Inverse folding.
């Protein structure tokens, strides 16, 4: 289960701005990659020292520094010192329970977003925090582990596709966030396929495990909603920059990104409604099946009521019962009972009670 709350127990008795990584170590050592580019050229390099990466900043270019692995607090502190980042901002980077947000500081801005993956085999939503720092001419990205959704952005940079190499750092951070948002679209599709398969089973032969799967999918959809709802506010905050980090020319792109987020929220909300309806369908189907069983049992019981009455009357042990001395009375009684049973069955059939 993914928690969106700050793990307070890890920060007890710590001063504000203390650098403590609240997640789990997901790689042996951090990895630092640099993309430094302008319209004419690009440098792609993996470095072992953050100071080497920092040396690219300040040139006539845009520098993208990606850090995989947040467990090395000393590295994070060095980044804080080199780029003059406020300790509270770096605290948010290391606190992986943050909700999506975009905050402007004096000379830079912090963005926090959730990268979301979905495992179709385990039907589990995997949520990882990703943080961005946008400064003058550079973008820092922080990830808990290697492997992300930025391959399309890297490909555009390498081959100078589109306008990305001719734009400033604000366009780069937009492109990175847009790549993450685009990756979200696969999740509702996968969830919808699972819902359709469960619905087919429920309509044919509902089982208790189907209800368990429905509740599980519903909990995963709730996680998605928690990750997506603040994202709309975050993108809206990006349009309210007065520091000059995000230029007016980014307006159309951010509005398009906002539309994508709203569309995703609507899709996930629809999935939650479908899941609730599927839960109701399961209960209704099970109830109908139970009603059919009860109807058959009621019909059988009703047929046997007069037969039981006849058997009860002639099963009394009174000494003076004239029918007991009638020759063939036993067979006559059996014939009457069979005739009554057939007659009642025909009547119930015409009434369409079974």
């Amino acid at each position: 289960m993914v928690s969106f709350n700050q793990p307070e127990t890890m920060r007890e008795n710590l001063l504000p701005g203390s650098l403590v990584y609240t997640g789990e170590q997901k790689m042996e050592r951090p990895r630092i990659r640099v993309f430094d580019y302008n319209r004419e050229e690009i440098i792609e390099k993996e470095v072992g020292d953050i100071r080497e990466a920092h040396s690219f900043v300040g040139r006539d270019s845009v520098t993208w520094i990606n850090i995989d692995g947040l467990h090395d607090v000393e590295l994070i502190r060095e980044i804080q010192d080199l780029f003059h980042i406020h300790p509270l901002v770096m605290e948010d980077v290391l606190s992986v329970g943050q909700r999506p947000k975009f905050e402007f500081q004096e000379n830079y801005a912090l963005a926090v977003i959730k990268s979301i993956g979905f495992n179709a085999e385990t039907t589990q939503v995997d949520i990882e925090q990703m943080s961005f720092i946008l400064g003058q001419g550079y973008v820092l990205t922080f990830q808990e582990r290697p492997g992300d959704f930025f391959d399309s952005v890297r490909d555009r940079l390498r081959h100078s596709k589109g306008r990305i190499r001719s734009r400033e750092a604000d366009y780069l951070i937009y492109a990175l966030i847009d790549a993450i948002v685009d990756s979200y679209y696969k999740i509702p599709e996968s969830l919808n396929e699972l819902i359709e398969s469960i619905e087919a089973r429920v309509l044919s032969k509902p089982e208790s495990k189907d209800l368990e799967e429905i509740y599980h999918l519903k909990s995963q959809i709730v996680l998605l909603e928690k990750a997506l709802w603040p994202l709309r506010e975050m993108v809206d905050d990006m349009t309210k920059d007065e520091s000059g980090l995000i230029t007016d020319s980014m307006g159309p792109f951010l509005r398009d990104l906002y539309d994508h987020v709203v569309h995703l929220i609507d899709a996930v909300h629809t999935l939650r409604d479908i899941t609730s309806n599927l839960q109701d369908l399961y209960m209704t189907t099970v109830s109908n099946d139970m009603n059919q069983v009860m109807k058959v049992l009621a019909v059988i019981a009703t047929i046997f009521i007069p037969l039981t009455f006849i058997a009860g009357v002639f099963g009394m042990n009174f000494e003076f019962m004239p029918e007991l001395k009638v020759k063939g009375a036993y067979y006559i009684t059996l014939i009457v009972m069979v005739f009554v049973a057939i007659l009642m069955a025909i009547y119930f059939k015409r009434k369409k009670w079974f």
Remarks:
- The chain has two domains: 8-285, 292-350.
- The beta strands are 31-37, 42-47, 62-68, 101-104, 109-119, 124-135, 138-143.
